[in-house]
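User: Small ask, check this?
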Amino acid sequence: MNELTRRNEIQDMMDKKGLTAPRVTVESIAERIHSVEYVKHTLPTGGILRWCVINMVNGFSVTGKPSACCSPENDDEEIGKKVAFDNAYREIWQLEGYLLCEKLAEVPHAA
């Protein structure tokens, strides 16, 4: 199961339970993504690393940990890109969560 599938399942559970307070969502992040790029690096040993660079609409770029394939015979571009994307996406989720907490802290709460 990939990161987006897992996040969508959690969102569906929250919606069914009527949990509608401000939160980070798959859609709110998707609206902020401008483009996605991948960088492939082949190690001297033949292993392959792939990073995903997610460029946000505000000009900020995010990377996560790379996907890593020790045996070049097992390298699959599609799988490597999915793993790299999920790793970078997790980083965006954390940043968006922090930003949401900052925004909520600025709003006075009723006592």
Summary: The longest helix spans residues 77-106.
